[in-house]
User: Which sequence fits this backbone?
């Protein structure tokens, strides 16, 4: 919806700065951008169109000559690549970069190629475009499930993967991840109800990652016996994988991951530097006097969002941000900032997803995961013991988070720090806090505690939170509002919650703190596996 609203107002915003172009061409060029990047902020969209104008692009036909490097001054690398690939695909005579040809192309494609060195830049293998999914070769039981829009069982899904990969290998014996991704997209597009990644009707990410993961795994298994023992390969990028982004660019990708307005380029028209400073000081006084209402705080945070982001993105310490922008660490202030940053209403979104998914997840852990995994069983027994007869949404959410940690084998101590029930903020031993955001639990259990605190960068930033749910939403929001990467020790739990309970589903990129020489996939495979298992789990 948000993308549609932006598109509707787009021509009016751009015409003043591009008065030497025909309005119809402006709209066509703008549409060519927003159809690929629908959530692009208007200020960035205007900058892209200005750049294209400077390069001499007058019509949409000129877009086929634009290169990724032309767009890097105003777009992130992945955004630039997506635009260039889309524009080239709409003009098949062009090729943006050398295309790596499959090591064993099909006979049809082999006959169309020549040995001329220059041909590698104009030859485009099109076997993926022409590849027909072998639906007719699938078992009848599987076909019936697909046609009736039912999810196939894991056994039938594996059989489908084997048959499809077998047909792929007849055409190309070394298909790339890009190839399997395109085929996975086709399969999901044909039978979305049966094959999409969904939980309780919500599509996770683009909806095809788990299927692509299975296709790629099967391809790797089939290829393994034929692989040479020593293989020297050149590192290349097909322009679609986040893990191929150079290391020096990864930090910005992680910081901006999931954000729609990470750093606004301009002050609101009604604001000046002086008015921003005045509102900032007003908020500090309101906070000190404890004299405010949430609606006033929300409006002030929204109107000063530009200056907040400038301070955060230049690396201002958490301690200083607490002094300068104290409401950012309170529920109303962080919720307003988070919504401007990501387009998501954090509390409303979380509650809506809890209503739809929490019980299904708890039943899955109890009936499927606990019998198979000792750590989940132990965590379940501990939760039941600590919870006692307590019932309600907060207790369900606490149990869900603790069981998620156990399921992924991630330590509770990285998320929760327990102190005495009467402990004050100044008495917390900061050196014992994890470096990443954590909830300080005033008591021996999340179920029985009546007070929580929030710590970020080993600083207590909110010393009085009276319920687990706002404490947890503040914890999660901190990762986005303050440009903090997910620690590797919590990567699966946080990404699952991000995608399934906070509805942040980027197709590319990662929020995970990277390890040197370690490739990071756009979606954590362990998260995909749990999502697929939940989709297959039948419950009443």
Assistant:
């Amino acid at each position: 919806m948000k993308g549609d609203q932006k598109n509707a107002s787009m021509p009016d915003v751009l015409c003043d700065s591009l008065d030497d172009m025909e309005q119809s061409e402006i709209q066509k060029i703008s549409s060519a951008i927003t159809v690929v990047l629908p959530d692009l902020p208007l200020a960035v969209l205007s900058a892209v169109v200005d750049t294209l104008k400077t390069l001499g692009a007058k019509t949409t036909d000129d877009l086929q000559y634009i290169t990724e490097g032309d767009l890097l001054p105003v777009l992130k690398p992945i955004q630039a690549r997506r635009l260039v690939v889309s524009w080239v695909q709409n003009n098949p005579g062009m090729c943006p970069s050398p295309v790596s040809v499959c090591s064993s192309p099909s006979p049809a494609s082999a006959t169309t190629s020549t040995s001329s060195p220059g041909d590698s830049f104009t030859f485009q293998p099109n076997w993926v475009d022409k590849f027909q999914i072998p639906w007719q070769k699938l078992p009848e039981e599987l076909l019936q499930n697909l046609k009736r829009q039912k999810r196939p069982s894991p056994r039938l899904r594996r059989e489908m993967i084997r048959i499809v990969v077998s047909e792929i290998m007849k055409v190309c014996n070394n298909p790339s991840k890009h190839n399997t991704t395109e085929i996975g997209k086709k399969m999901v597009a044909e039978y979305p109800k049966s094959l999409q990644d969904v939980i309780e009707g919500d599509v996770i990410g683009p909806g095809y990652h788990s299927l692509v993961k299975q296709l790629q795994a099967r391809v790797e298994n089939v290829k393994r016996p034929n692989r040479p023992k020593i293989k020297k390969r050149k590192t290349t990028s097909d322009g679609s994988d986040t893990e191929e982004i150079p290391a020096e660019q990864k930090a910005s990708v992680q910081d901006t991951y999931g954000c729609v307005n990470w750093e606004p380029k301009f002050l609101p028209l009604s604001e000046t530097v002086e008015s921003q400073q005045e509102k900032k000081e007003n908020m500090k006084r309101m906070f000190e006097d404890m004299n405010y209402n949430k609606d006033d705080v929300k409006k002030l945070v929204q109107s000063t969002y530009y200056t907040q982001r400038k301070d955060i993105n230049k690396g201002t310490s958490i301690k200083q941000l607490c002094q300068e922008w104290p409401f950012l660490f309170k529920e109303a202030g962080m919720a307003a900032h988070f919504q401007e940053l990501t387009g998501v209403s954090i509390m409303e979104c979380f509650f809506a997803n809890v209503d739809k998914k929490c019980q299904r997840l708890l039943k899955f852990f109890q009936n499927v995961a606990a019998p198979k995994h000792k750590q989940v069983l132990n965590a379940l027994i501990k939760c039941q013991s600590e919870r006692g007869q307590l019932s309600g949404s907060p207790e369900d959410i606490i149990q869900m988070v603790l069981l998620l940690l156990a399921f992924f084998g991630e330590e509770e101590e990285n998320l929760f720090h327990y102190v005495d029930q009467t402990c004050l903020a100044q008495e917390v031993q900061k050196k014992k806090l994890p470096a990443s955001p954590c909830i300080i639990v005033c008591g021996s259990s999340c179920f029985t505690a009546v007070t929580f605190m929030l710590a970020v960068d080993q600083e207590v930033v909110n010393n009085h939170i009276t319920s687990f749910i706002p404490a947890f939403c503040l914890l999660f929001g901190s990762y986005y509002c303050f440009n903090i990467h997910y620690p590797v020790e919590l990567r699966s739990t946080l990404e699952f919650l991000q995608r399934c309970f906070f509805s942040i589903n980027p197709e590319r990129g990662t929020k995970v703190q990277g390890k040197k020489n370690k490739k990071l996939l756009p979606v954590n495979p362990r998260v995909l596996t749990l999502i697929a298992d939940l989709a297959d789990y039948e419950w009443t």
Q: What stands out?
A: The chain has 24 helices and six strands.
